[in-house]
Automatic annotation (TrEMBL):
Protein name as it appears in the record: IclR family transcriptional regulator
Molecular-function GO term, any one: DNA binding
Record's keyword terms, sorted: DNA-binding, Transcription, Transcription regulation
Keyword GTP-binding recorded: no
Gene3D superfamilies attached to this UniProt entry: 3.30.450.40, Winged helix-like DNA-binding domain superfamily/Winged helix DNA-binding domain (1.10.10.10)
Length: 254
């Protein structure tokens, strides 16, 4: 129920406060938080005080606030992402032992790639993907391969939204890339996010044969070894699907 002059509810305002934090702004002064959440300063102070009292925010030594440990605790208790991560981790560790660069697990959210987990080795190449961080769908091999294996109406809805943004490739080019990825079963994008690196990803399928997640690697360009990496990722993806109960126990993963 809305209970403010602007028509937004308390829940709306709390969500905007929590969403104001990101990788570039892990903690914020209340005045900045109010501005980023589009709230009057007095309202922000009142809601922040309540969130601090419940441990959903915590105050830093200098007076800034940041998401609290209890927020993480509550989110982790019964999270679908946690279930996916728990099943995927052994397969990710196997992949990482071979590539010794970056191995990551992701899902699609709001036209972006949300990274659930990432394993990295010392001295590995630069990688902008961070756990609980996001990247635009069209710059990520994981995002592209998930969209390639999404229902047609989902693809067309995304194209309609992305066509007005100007940063994504033209719809006809995206459709062409997705067709290739569906045929090949994997996506490989060199030098899109970071020069001299290549992202390779395959979908983790649900029971309907559509992508529910992606497992991928980021490696130096020129060291991709596609012929070995893609089959290994596909084996891992099938193992994750089976571990989630999507594939029957006897389904081969080799």
């Amino acid at each position: 129920m809305a209970n403010s002059r602007s028509g937004d509810s308390v829940t709306d305002r709390i969500v905007r406060i929590i969403s104001a934090f990101d990788g570039a702004h892990p903690s914020l002064p209340v005045a900045t938080l109010a501005r980023r959440a589009d709230l009057p300063l007095s309202t922000a102070h009142r809601l922040v005080s309540e969130l601090l009292r419940h441990g959903l925010l915590q105050k830093q030594a200098g007076g800034d606030v940041r998401p609290g440990m209890r927020l993480w605790e509550l989110a982790s208790r019964s999270s679908p992402a946690g279930d996916l991560k728990a099943v995927a981790m052994p397969f990710m560790e196997d992949i990482q032992a071979v590539v010794r660069q970056h191995t990551q697990l992701s899902v699609l959210r709001d036209d972006e790639v949300l990274f659930i987990e990432r394993l990295s080795s010392r001295g590995s190449v630069l990688n902008h993907a961070k756990v609980a961080g996001r990247l635009p769908l069209h710059v990520s091999s994981s995002g592209m391969v998930m969209m390639a294996h999404s229902p047609r109406h989902v693809q067309e809805a995304y194209l309609a939204r992305a066509s007005g943004q100007g940063s994504a490739p033209p719809p006809e080019e995206l459709r062409r890339q997705w067709a290739v990825m569906r045929q090949y079963g994997a996506a490989s994008l060199p030098g899109i996010v970071v020069a001299d690196t290549t992202g390779i990803a395959v979908p983790v399928f649900n029971a309907s044969g559509m992508a529910l997640a992606a497992i991928g690697v980021v490696v130096p360009t020129g060291e991709e070894n596609i012929s070995a990496t893609v089959p290994a990722l596909m084996t891992a993806a099938r193992g994750i699907s089976r571990g989630l109960g999507i594939l029957p126990p006897g389904f081969p993963i080799e």
